[in-house]
Specification:
The chain is mainly alpha-helical. It has one domain (about 5-135). Helices cover about 70% and strands about 0% of the residues. The chain has helices at about 10-40, 50-65, 75-80, 85-95, 100-110, 120-135. Helix 1 packs antiparallel against helix 2, helix 1 runs antiparallel to helix 3 (about 75-80) and helix 2 (about 50-65) packs across helix 6.
């Protein structure tokens, strides 16, 4: 939890705090992608440590993509709120209590109608970026 009132810069400062989570995920993914490529250079067939590193890359890219969704309580919501006009932000904030229901609905939609959910598109994009980083 972050005390938004204690952050310098007000709502824009909160946007920087919210952006830190997805950025950290992408940095971890990049670092492990470098490790993956170094392991791949060893010439051995795909090893267990190599698979583990690939999973770490895919997981972190996926978490970064998921976390930028502008749905409360995700970081994307707090980032987006910083750029909305104040009155509109207050109105949108009243809907924040339904954020978990929206997330649950998206997860259920991805299970009930594969390919139709925005989450499926998001995870496909995340997998593509992870594979691009690793060359896998």
């Amino acid at each position: 939890m972050v005390n938004a009132a204690a952050i310098r810069g007000g709502r824009r400062g909160m946007a920087w705090v919210a952006a830190a989570g997805p950025v950290a995920n992408l940095v971890v993914a990049f670092v492990f992608a470098v490790v993956y490529r170094a392991l791949a250079l060893s010439g051995d067939s795909v090893s267990d440590p190599e698979r583990l590193v690939l999973v770490i890359v895919i997981l972190n890219v996926t978490l970064a993509f998921f976390n930028i969704l502008p749905i409360p309580p995700l970081d994307g919501y707090n980032f987006a709120m910083a750029f909305l006009p104040f009155r509109l932000a207050l109105q949108v904030q009243q809907l924040a209590q339904y954020g978990l229901l929206v997330l649950l609905g998206l997860v259920l939609l991805s299970r009930l109608a594969p390919g139709a959910s925005p989450l499926d598109w998001l995870f496909t994009g995340a997998d593509g970026l992870a594979r691009l980083l690793t060359g896998a």
